[in-house]
Amino acid sequence: xxxxxxxxxxxxxxxxxxxxxxxxxxxxxxxxxxxxxxxxxxxxxxxxxxxxxxxxxxxxxxxxxxxxxxxxxxxxxxxxxxxxxxxxxxxxxxxxxxxxxxxxxxxxxxxxxxxxxxxxxxxxxxxxxxxxxxxxxxxxxxxxxxxxxxxxxxxxxxxxxxxxxxxxxxxxxxxxxxxxxxxxxxxxxxxxxxxxxxxxxxxxxxxxxxxxxxxxxxxxxxxxxxxxxxxxxxxxxxxxxxxxxxxxxxxxxxxxxxxxxxxxxxxxxxxxxxxx
Length: 276
What we know:
Helices cover about 40% and strands about 35% of the residues. The strands form two sheets. Strands 2-1-6-5-4-3 form a six-stranded mixed β-sheet. Strands 7-8-9-10-11 form a five-stranded antiparallel β-sheet. α5 packs antiparallel against α9 (about 265-275). The protein is globular, with a radius of gyration of 25 Å. The chain has helices spanning about 5-50, 55, 75-85, 145-155, 165-175, 180-185, 185-195, 210, 265-275; strands at about 60-65, 70, 90-105, 105-120, 120-135, 135-145, 200-205, 220-230, 235-240, 245-250, 255-260. It is an alpha+beta fold. Mean pLDDT is about 85; it is low at about 10-20 and about 20-25.
């Protein structure tokens, strides 16, 4: 055989072996990363279900996009502590397999169905976590679910909407807040199942009660979430939008205190343009 041809075959063979080894090594590394992401997702679920905020803190990066809102991990933990305090019966379970998607060399996304149970209600949503490799560790940098994302998308689509009053903006601030979205998730189905027709927001007080068709005067906007039945309208939650501080609160009736609620701060621009 011609020496040049023999050398060429040998060169190609060595290249093939090299590429095969490289491919197998990459496959091994990817497989290891997938297992890490799946295990971290299970740890996150276990912490949420057991309401273990101390261990949960270690899973988050310093900055996280939490249900569409950029937050520090400290604020996320405070928010979850408040939610757990309010819903001590809360539990969460991952149903079915965890799907992982490699977004880049240092970023993965895990997708899964989760069952949440609290207040004698249950809801199943497709949720996800995004993990970034920070140093040698993988940390959660985004947490949300498809239902919340759809609401956020609708809220973004409504940016072109022309608000006609202060109340319009305040109602949008409340309806698009992550806590309100969680509270009302699956609520309509529950109300109808129990013989009701719907749920809605009552304006208990406003700076302009006649214009806003409020029940009375208040320097702040006082709102409540209620269920509607043929013979009654039980109230589930009370909310306050402080017109001076421009902050949204949930009123804790048991402790007679106001709990700050995260909301879309971009809507404050619309509020100020109408409510100077």
